[in-house]
Design a protein that fits this description.
Number of domains: 2
Strand order of the largest sheet: 6-4-5-7-8
Oligomer: single chain
Largest sheet: 5 strands, mixed
Shape: elongated
Helix content: 25-40%
Number of strands: 8
Structural class: alpha+beta
Low-confidence stretches: none
C-alpha cells in the first residue's frame, strides 16, 4: 500500500503531493498550483485537469494518479509539511471568500466530511471474510494476500493465539479497532516507538491515510495476527476453535482492549457498549464469555 504526505514551500501557494511505495522504496511527486487545490474549475470534469483532492481519492481507491512514477525534486520533499485536513479547510475558506463564486463550489464547504465518508466506504468492510490464514507462508511477513490492504478501523485484532506456552491459561490479546491499539501501546513504548505510533495515528486523523494490515501486525509484534471484521465472525471463530481445542479452550482468558473516549479515529466505534466493557480497558474474561457478549446464542 502506498503512503502519501504533502509538502508546502515556505513561499508561494503551491503544494506537493508526495507518494511513497514501501514495496519498491520509490518516491513520486507532483506539485499542484493554487488552481489545482480547489475550488474545482468549471471544466475540471470535462478536461480531466489535475486536482489534488481527486488524485488523493484515486490513490486511496487503488488507482495511481498519472504522476506516480515521476521523480520529485528532493528540495520539495524536505519542505514543511501540511495536512490534508488543513488543505480541506483552506478549500472551505476559498469557497466562501465573498467573491460570488461560492454558489459554484458548494461541495467545498463540506470537503473534509465528503472525503472521510468516501475513504471509510473503502476501509470499513463489515461483510469481509475474517483473515485467519496467517501462518507459515501466509503470515504478515511472507506473502499474506492482505498485507498491503488498508486496515479496517472497526475490526477486531487478535494476537498471541499461536505463541502461548499454555493455551489453557495464557491469555490471547484482543483489540477492538485501531483506536484500541493506539491506546494500549502508547504507554508501553519508548519515546522513538511512541513517536512512530503517533505519526501513524496522525496519518489517519490528518490525512485519512490508513496503515496497511502488515504495518498493524508489525506494531503489535505478531506476524500471525488475526483480523475479524464483525462481532459475529469473531464469536463464531472462538466457538469453533474452542470446540475443536485448536489453540483455545472455552476457559482460555482474553485480555480485551477497547478505545477510550479521548481517542478519535475516523471510522472507529468504541466497543464499550457492545461488549459491556468500560472504556480504559483492558478487561480479562474467558473467550466463551467474550463470544456470548459479542453474539449471544439464540
Amino acid at each position: 500500500m502506498k503512503t502519501f504526505r504533502f509538502a508546502k514551500p515556505r513561499s508561494g501557494s503551491d503544494v506537493a503531493f508526495i507518494v511513497e511505495d514501501p514495496a519498491t522504496h520509490s518516491v513520486s511527486g507532483k506539485v499542484y498550483s493554487s488552481d489545482e487545490l480547489y475550488p474545482l474549475s468549471s471544466d475540471r470534469y470535462y478536461t480531466n485537469l489535475p486536482n489534488l483532492f481527486v488524485d488523493v481519492l484515486d490513490l486511496i481507491d487503488g488507482n495511481d494518479p498519472e504522476f506516480v512514477g515521476e521523480q520529485v525534486d528532493p528540495k520539495i520533499g524536505r519542505a514543511p509539511t501540511i495536512t490534508l485536513h488543513s488543505l480541506a479547510r483552506r478549500a472551505q475558506r476559498a469557497a466562501a471568500d465573498g467573491s460570488g463564486k461560492a454558489q459554484r463550489f458548494q461541495d467545498a464547504k463540506n470537503l473534509w466530511n465528503v472525503m472521510e465518508t468516501h475513504v471509510l466506504k473503502t476501509v470499513v468492510t463489515p461483510e469481509a471474510d475474517p483473515i485467519v490464514d496467517v501462518r507459515k507462508s501466509q503470515n504478515w511477513r511472507k506473502n499474506q494476500p492482505f498485507a498491503a490492504t488498508p486496515a479496517n478501523p472497526q475490526a477486531w485484532y487478535v494476537t498471541d493465539v499461536f505463541s502461548r506456552s499454555n493455551p489453557l491459561k495464557n491469555p490471547i490479546e484482543v483489540y477492538r479497532g485501531l483506536g484500541a491499539i493506539f491506546d494500549a501501546l502508547m504507554e508501553e513504548l519508548d519515546d522513538l516507538a511512541a513517536a512512530d505510533l503517533t505519526a501513524m495515528k496522525s496519518g489517519i486523523t490528518d490525512n485519512l491515510c490508513f496503515p496497511a494490515y502488515s504495518r498493524v501486525a508489525e506494531v503489535l509484534n505478531d506476524s500471525n495476527m488475526l483480523v475479524f471484521h464483525s462481532d459475529a465472525s469473531f464469536a463464531g471463530w472462538i466457538r469453533e476453535s474452542a470446540a475443536a481445542k485448536e489453540n483455545l479452550d472455552s476457559s482460555t482468558p482474553a485480555l480485551v482492549h477497547v478505545s477510550s473516549p479521548q481517542t478519535k479515529i475516523p471510522g472507529d466505534v468504541p466497543a464499550s457498549e457492545r461488549v459491556d466493557l468500560g472504556s480504559g480497558s483492558p478487561v480479562k474474561l474467558t473467550v466463551s464469555n467474550l463470544a456470548n457478549r459479542l453474539s449471544p446464542r439464540a
